[in-house]
Every structure is written in structure tokens, then in C-alpha cells.
Design brief:
This protein is α/β, with parallel strands linked by helices and about 170 residues long. The protein has a single domain, classed as Rossmann fold, CATH 3.40.50. Helix content is about 35%, strand content about 15%. It contains six helices and seven strands. The strands form two sheets. The protein has a five-stranded parallel sheet, with helices on both faces. Helix 4 links the parallel strand 6 and strand 7.
Length: about 170
């Protein structure tokens, strides 16, 4: 589907991708990602991997010219596939930096194995990643300051506030 996705971005049919991957739980209080996916504009696509996807992969979000609005790379261990998608898009558009792509990173944080996903994104110098709702236990004030100052890491707010932030409204 790579060619169709690139063409949809070039034509303006897809305006933005949201990487919504990682770990999440079943508690009602953690319905942030379900609500977030439901409120995404129709010209956006969710790139997902990990159990966070169970919050939205069965929602009827439709498609964009035959491209499903939720593209699932598999388990959290398959987040590497999402990195490859971003790198291929960067290459297809002749960009110097993955941060120039129309991609927002809204990562579910629930347990320790999400650390490797975050470290991979940081290694690629991905900026402005939002983590939530439960933040990592190792996030001491000093570590948090480095992540915020160097990478623009942020927590999450409400779905409506975050939607405005991610969509530039």
C-alpha cells in the first residue's frame, strides 16, 4: 500500500498521520485513545502497533481512497515497522528529518516494555512525542527535564485539548 499512501499524501487526501502505539489497559478511565481516534479528522490515518490499538481498531473509522484509516503494524514488538514507514515516507518526500513529516506521536504508556519504543524514537531524534496517560516510573525530575528540553516530550491533557494541539488549531 506504500504507493497508494504516498500518492494520498501528495494529493492532500491524507493530511496527517498519528502514531498511536504502545501499551494500554482495559480500565474505563483509560478510554482516552478510543475518544481520540473517534475525534480525528477524516483526512488522518492512525499508524498503530501494540495493545493500545484495541482501543480503536474495531471502530468504524472508514478509509481514505481504499486506505484504511487504521494501519496496524502488529504487536508492540513490531513498532519497528512504524519506524520504517516513517523513514520510507521521509525518503519518498525527499526530507532531511522525520520531524518534517505530517506525523504526530501520541504514545500509550502502560508498562516497561514501552521503554524500547520510546528509546527507538529518541534514537531517531523524533521530537514532540506525547506520552500518557500513566507516565513511566523512572521519569525522575532530572530525566524529565532532559526529555522535555532535548526532545519536546510532553504528557497528555484532555482529548479535546490534545486534538487542538496536534491539529494546530
Amino acid at each position: 500500500m506504500a504507493d497508494k499512501v504516498v500518492e494520498a499524501v501528495k494529493s492532500g487526501a491524507i493530511k496527517k498521520f498519528f502514531v498511536m502505539a504502545g501499551c494500554d489497559g482495559r480500565m474505563k478511565s483509560r478510554e482516552y485513545y478510543t475518544e481520540f481516534a473517534q475525534k480525528l479528522p477524516q483526512d488522518t490515518v492512525v499508524l498503530t502497533a501494540g495493545c493500545a490499538k484495541y482501543r480503536y481498531n474495531k471502530l468504524n473509522l472508514g478509509d481514505i481512497g481504499g486506505i484504511p484509516r487504521v494501519l496496524d503494524a502488529g504487536q508492540c514488538n513490531d513498532c519497528y515497522s512504524l519506524v520504517l514507514i516513517a523513514l520510507k515516507l521521509k525518503e519518498a518526500f525527499g526530507l532531511d528529518d522525520v520531524n518534517q513529516l505530517p506525523i504526530a506521536f501520541n504514545i500509550a504508556w502502560y508498562e516497561q516494555k514501552a521503554v524500547i519504543v520510546l528509546l527507538a524514537l529518541l534514537h531517531l531524534n523524533v521530537k514532540n512525542i506525547h506520552l500518557g496517560h500513566t507516565l513511566p516510573g523512572f521519569l525522575s525530575p532530572n530525566v524529565a527535564k532532559v526529555l522535555v528540553d532535548t526532545f519536546g516530550i510532553a504528557g497528555m491533557g484532555t482529548v479535546d485539548d490534545d486534538m487542538k494541539l496536534f491539529m494546530g488549531a
